[in-house]
Amino acid sequence: MRLFPLIFAAAALTVSAADKPASIKLCYDNVEVYPWAVEGRDGLNIVQLKMAAQKLGTKLEFVKIPWARCLDELRQGNMDGAFAASFKPDRLAMGSYPGGGDKPDTSKYMMMDGYSLYRLKGSNVGYDGKAISNVTGAVGAQQGFSIVDQLKGMGVRVDDGTRSADDSLRKLTAGRLQAVALQTLEGDNSIQQAEFAGKVEKVSPPLVEKPYYLMLSKQFIGKYGDFSKEVWNTVAAVRDSAEYKKAAGAFK
Prior knowledge:
There is one protein chain. The protein is α/β, with parallel strands linked by helices and 252 residues long. The chain folds into two domains: 22-111 and 211-250, 3-Layer(aba) Sandwich (D-Maltodextrin-Binding Protein, domain 2), CATH 3.40.190; 113-209, Periplasmic binding protein-like II (D-Maltodextrin-Binding Protein, domain 2). The protein is built from nine helices and ten strands. An eight-stranded mixed beta sheet has the order 2-1-3-10-4-9-7-8, sandwiched between helices. It comes from Chitinimonas arctica. Keywords: Signal. Residues 1-17 form the signal peptide. This is Amino acid ABC transporter substrate-binding protein.
């Protein structure tokens, strides 16, 4: 009769193991976006996710590929998750945001960032919080980034033929663009580099500020529904933790 408790305990362990994968496969853009994803070391997104994985008791596999492909791999279920994605309704066909509904649970974001406009020093290109002024040519943006749609919605001609912030800035300094729209922290870092310092300046106010999320595939959520919620909750908890804030504050 003593076998029954052992059998039940073994069954419980089997169910528990089945409810949590040994490893989660996550993709992210192969273009550097300071400070979130940087070359040669862990950016803050990776730092945050590794802290979350430790608390969750699972391993992470990171795959760095072009962003459009990353989202398509997420849609197919070849990736369990993708980061860091701002909310766009058309991305709901690719995977799920925290909460799993038609709109994300905004309390479960990974980080806050946004986009700002950058112009040649002395240029009269401006932004008043609603419209971009004094632009007769193209404004540059990175291919596949959400700001492209916003710029087009303002009636601006967009050149999204570059993949990196630095390449966009090179087009600007070469006179091929009148301004560029870059993720703010990345843009602020780039214009301090010797190549652009003293030549490019930021326009205020920002074009937009918004949260970015870890998306999970519909296939992953279908298999690990409860654990998916735990993943999103843990990512948010790490974001607000003293440990992560210390790491972010020391990041240069």
